[in-house]
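Lay summary

Proteins are chains of building blocks that fold into shapes. Our project writes down both the chain and a compact code for its shape. Here are two examples, one after the other.
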Amino acid sequence: MDVSFLGGPQPQLGVGVVAPFDFALDRELWRWVPDDVSLHLTRTPFVPVEVSLDLARLVSEHETLDAAVQALCAVSPQVISYACTSGSFVGGVAGERAMCAAMVQAGEVPSLTTSGALIEAVREIGARRIAVVTPYTKSVTDSLEDFLGEAGITVTGRAYLGLTRHIWKVPYRDVVDMARAAVVGDTEALFISCTNLPTYDVIPQLEAELRMPVLSANQVTMWAALRAIGVAAVGPYQALLDPVARRGPAAMNGSEPVDTGPRATPEAAFAGSPAPPEGEVVEGLEPPPYPPEDTGGLPPV
């Protein structure tokens, strides 16, 4: 059968992605990408270091970025994103800007990082006070809070798992439990950190329960990269992507929100343990981290 009249495949826009060597969620990134965009991923070289501030520094060295960006430029992407939260906040705001500059110099292609995309996304939704959830150790979580503080964003509450490996194995239920623990006081949005932590399906459920925008590392990375080339990210009922969702659950049916008490849980909310009663948490209270695990050591749900 002669198919020459079809003229070949449709042109594709390209997004280059530099990820750490242990990144395991390629498919999650693709879920935010429309059909006319291709992702081109490459990984940083393996280093025998567990997830820590040291690892974050190693995978974000400019020499490492230069090599990865040059490899990606072989397929002519329109933008390049560095998909690692800790690797892009470990050097502070100045370090994140220097990373972007180094990538642009290496490939002469517009470039961004996950942490830079986070700041852009927080400003997009008009938030200044956010809760933070991470799979990291305390020291890495502290570094994220310092980075946000430099950018003028206040962390109102936080929860973390204390993991040093196998972060991609964390189930959604543990992410939900951390979110409930972290969202205290006058919080305007929630950020779920780490590009190796699964988040795609849990975002709309948490937004419905917590009644606030929920951002994740992979979500903001794809949102910013696609926006840089004039394309909208796709995703069901996510406040960052959908102006209707940004106005809250009640906007979907045209009614005004009804005050049903703090942290009321609609029927559509993610199943799991109930939110703690009012009065049992204190603003800024940091729950103790769960112990690190190898396999099977996650906290009970």
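And here is the second example, written the same way.
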Amino acid sequence: MSVATDGAKSRPRRTPGRADAGGPPRARPTRPARSGRPAGARRGGWTPWLYLAPALVVLAGLLVYPVYQLGLISFLDYTQAQVSGGEPTSFQGFGNYAELLSDPQFWNVLLATVVFAAACVLGTMTVGCALAVLLTRVRALPRLLLMLAALGAWATPAITGSTVWVFLFDPDFGPVNRVLGLGDFAWTYGRLSAFALVFFEVVWCSFPLVMVTTYAGIRAVPTEVVEAATLDGASVWRTWRSVLAPLLRPILIVVTIQSIIWDFKVFTQIYVMTGGGGIAKQNLVLNVYAYQKAFASSQYSLGSAIGVVMLLILLSVTLLYLKLLRRNGEEI
């Protein structure tokens, strides 16, 4: 009796809990991590940069160093005399930029470049998006033929395409003037007609990227969305404006920025089709203007200054465009 009592006294008393009452055992709550990021993200934070390191090294060699040299030369007095070693190179500071900004021809060329690039971007986006919608509404064989024709224009080198367009619009041998009944009208003699000719060629070789990219985006849109708009009586234009364009806005943003960059720095088409800038340099754009200053006039510092100005303009336009989109609530 005493042994049982002593054993009962020495046995620890258990407090009845929820597990004793027949309920399932509750797991202990885990403490949240101190950082807001998951542990896996913290451990692998440098892994993506390691994969990107080779590409970043190549980009640094192909982009960062040339831009550095471009900016450095723009602050120097660097002409043919300095290149040949006849005169020492001297530091000019912002003297080259002051000379450039005080030149009325620079402002005329800048205005022509902005207007021409804006027209090319608008034409490229319009033609590319319209043909992308057309591809979704034609049968397989016409769609294949249109794709092959567009990809052929896209794959044609710029200098080859420019030469072909000059032949097509030649006043003596070109078939376009004969079909249109223009006689011996010379497209490259007038300023507006020469810019129009280059505009058509730039749009011709640029719209396939917009068309293919937009077509791929349309194919990714659920068919029920487009069918619902059609059943509601929406026209093709209304379906594009109210349904497809908002859904494809991220894709359209990318191709628009690419078109702005490419069309603003167009060189080959202007140089080949207008003979280096047209009669009396009436068809100059900034890229051709920089080439003439740097290589035709051996004023390498002024040519570099024009290149830096172009780079700053493109960066400003791109950043402003992205800022406006973010202000409107778009995800970039």
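What can we say about the second shape? Strands lie at 76-77, 90-91.
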